[in-house]
Design goal:
Helix content: 10-25%
Distance between the termini: 27 Å
Shape: globular
Strand content: 25-35%
Largest sheet: 10 strands, mixed
Radius of gyration: 17 Å
Number of helices: 6
Order of helices and strands: HHEHEHEEHEEEEHEE
Structural class: alpha/beta
Length: 223
């Protein structure tokens, strides 16, 4: 895998977790229902960084074709045990380097995974995703971490001005690389897509960590 691709810290983090989230992310559910025609015949979804398959039951309930890429071989093997019929559709790979499916997709979903890369890796991932979308297909990216997030001023400098790493506390402790976004940077990196929706959410926490800001972007684009 490329040096600026999948962070191997995630292999360790998945192995150390005692439990995984079992419910799909609400923003994913909302965006899919609002911005896709998922009830059409042979609708195909590719999730970048599918992790432990949190969103997988949601898509299976929609009766669509689901494919997932995840960098952690450990958690992909766990998914194969849980969903043996999908073994060939759930693969361990670095989505900044390859998308190892010949299929074309109506939707590419990213929930908190693309943002765990540096700018060069993200540009490669978005280019690969664009190439495998059908004409008129959608990309939905949930929880791109905003430059207004408190953690943007923490950690160590990364290979570009929007990337930080080496977090030893806070939300991204020991998670490796995190990329942060502002509006202009999003428009630049997603320039190949026609933006349909771009939303920014900011939450200020006053207890127990006073003035801690969590801020993210949700995006929907069209090929």
């Amino acid at each position: 895998m490329a040096e600026d691709g999948f962070s191997m810290e995630w292999e360790r983090l998945w192995k150390e977790r005692d439990s995984y989230a079992k419910w799909p992310w609400s923003d994913v559910v909302s965006a899919v229902h609002r911005h896709t025609d998922h009830d059409t015949e042979e609708f195909a979804v590719l999730e970048l960084g599918c992790g432990a398959g949190t969103n997988l039951p949601f898509f299976l309930d929609l009766d669509v074709e689901y494919y997932g890429i995840e960098g952690s071989e450990y958690i992909v093997n766990e998914l194969h045990d849980q969903y043996p019929d999908l073994e060939n559709q759930l693969v361990s790979a670095d989505f900044t380097e390859e998308i190892p499916f010949s299929s074309s997709f109506d939707l590419v979903l990213d929930r908190g995974s693309v943002t765990a890369n540096s700018e060069s890796g993200i540009r490669r991932a978005l280019s690969l995703a664009y190439d495998q979308l059908v004409s008129g297909g959608r990309i939905i990216s949930i929880d791109l971490v905003s430059t207004e997030h408190t953690e943007f001023r923490r950690g160590e400098s990364g290979p570009d001005e929007y990337t930080r790493k080496g977090f030893d506390s806070g939300q991204f402790e020991k998670m490796g690389t995190i990329h942060f976004w502002d509006r202009e940077h999003i428009i630049d990196l997603f320039a190949d897509f026609d933006l349909i929706s771009l939303e920014h959410t900011r939450t200020e926490q006053h207890y127990p960590a006073d003035d801690y800001v969590r801020a993210t972007w949700n995006l929907v684009g069209k090929k």
